[in-house]
Design goal:
This protein has 5 helices and 3 strands. Strands 1-2-3 form a 3-stranded antiparallel sheet. The longest helix is centred in the last third of the chain and has 32 residues.
Length: 199
C-alpha cells in the first residue's frame, strides 16, 4: 500500500490520478472518428444533397473543410495541423499540472484534447476535416451588414447558415463552455472568500 505522504509518480500524475481526462478524451475521439466513418459511407454519397433529420432544423450534409472553424485559414492544412498539435500538447501539460480533485476542469481538458485529436487525425491523413452536421435554418440578422465609425464600408454580413461541423467541434466547444463556467464560479468563490476574510 502506498504511503499517503509519498508523492505520486509520473505515471500516476499522467494516468492513474487523471482517469476522467483520459475517459473523456477517448470517448470524444471514438465518437468523432466513428461518426465520420459513418458519414463518409452514408452522407457523402448523397452530396451535394442532404439528409433531413429534423426538417427545418437539423440535417446531415457532407463537407470537406480545408480550414479551421468557420473555414478560416482555408487551405493551410499543415499550419493548422501544427497549431492543433501544439494545442493538444499544451492541454496535456495543463492536465499534468492540474490537481486530481478538479474533476470538471479535467473533464473539460479531456473533451478539448479529444476533439483536437479527432480533427488532427483528419488533417494529417486526409488533408481536410470531415464535417457533416448542419443546422438547417437561416441565422437571424444574416442580411445585416454592420458599419463602424472608423470604416465607411459595411463589414461582412453575418453568415446565412451556421457552418457545417462534426463531433470533434462539439467536444471542443463543450470543453470550452465548461472551462468558462468553471472560471465564472471560481471568481465568485474567490470574491466570497475575500468578503469573509474582510469581516
Amino acid at each position: 500500500m502506498t504511503d499517503a505522504a509519498t508523492p505520486p509518480t509520473l505515471v500516476q500524475r499522467l494516468f492513474t490520478h487523471k482517469l476522467i481526462f483520459w475517459y473523456c478524451l477517448l470517448i470524444a475521439v471514438v465518437l468523432d472518428l466513428g461518426t465520420k466513418v459513418w458519414a463518409e459511407k452514408t452522407v457523402r454519397p448523397v452530396d451535394p444533397g442532404k439528409i433531413d433529420v429534423i426538417p427545418g432544423f437539423l440535417a446531415w450534409k457532407w463537407a470537406e473543410n480545408l480550414g479551421a472553424a468557420f473555414s478560416i485559414f482555408h487551405g493551410r492544412t499543415e499550419m493548422l495541423g501544427v497549431i492543433a498539435l501544439g494545442v493538444t500538447c499544451a492541454v496535456i501539460f495543463y492536465m499534468y499540472r492540474t490537481p486530481r480533485d478538479r474533476k470538471w476542469f479535467l473533464l473539460a481538458l479531456g473533451l478539448i484534447a479529444g476533439g483536437a485529436i479527432g480533427n488532427l487525425h483528419d488533417r494529417f491523413l486526409l488533408n481536410h476535416v470531415r464535417d457533416f452536421i448542419l443546422f438547417d435554418f437561416d441565422l437571424p440578422f444574416h442580411t445585416w451588414r454592420p458599419t463602424f465609425p472608423w470604416n465607411d464600408k459595411p463589414s461582412a454580413p453575418i453568415p446565412q447558415r451556421w457552418p457545417i461541423f462534426n463531433v470533434a467541434d462539439m467536444a471542443i466547444n463543450g470543453g470550452v463552455i465548461v472551462l468558462l463556467t468553471i472560471s465564472l464560479f471560481t471568481k465568485d468563490e474567490k470574491k466570497e472568500l475575500k468578503k469573509t476574510e474582510g469581516k
